[in-house]
Structure formats: C-alpha cells, structure tokens
Design a protein that fits this description.
The chain has two helices and 18 strands. It is α/β, with parallel strands linked by helices. The strands form four sheets. The chain has a five-stranded parallel β-sheet, with helices on one face. A five-stranded parallel β-sheet has the order 6-9-12-15-18, with no helix packed on it.
Amino acid sequence: MVHYGNLLIFGAGGYGQVVKELAAETGRFNKIEFIDDNNPLAIGKVSESEKFLKEFSCAIIAIGNPEIRQKIYNELEQIGFEIVNIISDKSYVSSSARIGKGCVIEPFVTVNANSVIGNGVFLCAGSVVGHNSVVNDFCQIDYNGVVSVSAAVPSKTKIVAGTVYRNQA
C-alpha cells in the first residue's frame, strides 16, 4: 500500500464528510483535516492554503460546484500541493482505464476498459462508466448514474442520480 502522509480536504460540507470517510478507509493518510471558508470543522480558509503545505502535502477538493472546484484545483497545483485521488477499495477500475488527478471514486463504482476520467471528477456510489468512454474534467456522475459505452461527457457536466448519459446521435 502506498502511504501519502497528511491530507487536506477542501470543503467540509456533506460531500467533504463522505470524502473524509473514504480517505480514512484507504489507510493511506496519517492525518486528515478540512479547509473551508464557512465551516467550524475546518482548520483554515481557502485563502490560507499555502501556509498548510509543509504539514499537508496532499489535497483533494470536495466541493460540488465545478467552477469553484476547478478554480481551487488550479490554485493548489500552482502552490505545489499533490492533488490525490481517493478511490474506494470497493470499486472496480479497469487496468486500462486512465484516471486524472483529484478524483473521488466511491464504493461500487465501475470504470470499464479503455475509459478516461479527467481531473477533479466525482464518481458517486454505484455509478458505471462504460468501456471506451470519456468523462471530462470536473464532472460528477451521481449515484447509479451510467455513462454509456463510447460516450464523451463534456467538462463540468453533472449526470443526476439514476440516469444514463449517451452521445447524441
């Protein structure tokens, strides 16, 4: 098992709590804390990120709004954080799939052969990405959402729970 050190989760809301539990279950982090501008659980605000770099070299963004997620992602890369993936051991990711940085892959997700997952993507529990599909940057595939075979999901798209995304004919 690869061990990463300490993790900062940007966003301490509901999804941040999910990501914290998933990160803890991996056993790859010594310490996990939140950064959030509006939550008392946080150890600091987003504008203070740089001061935490020495103690927390790893980061993940757990914020639903894709515009904000992308903005923070870009800032963290520029500061020098290692933006990590949180991938549940209870998911299936094909060995031929390519996963970007800053992705959360929850339990019971399937990412099939030759699929590409961009940066900052959330694949929620039970979602399926069909073979040869592309899920572009900062998308969210909600619970039991499906990306059909060979589909290409545009950046910042949210596929709502229980729906199927297909390329338009």
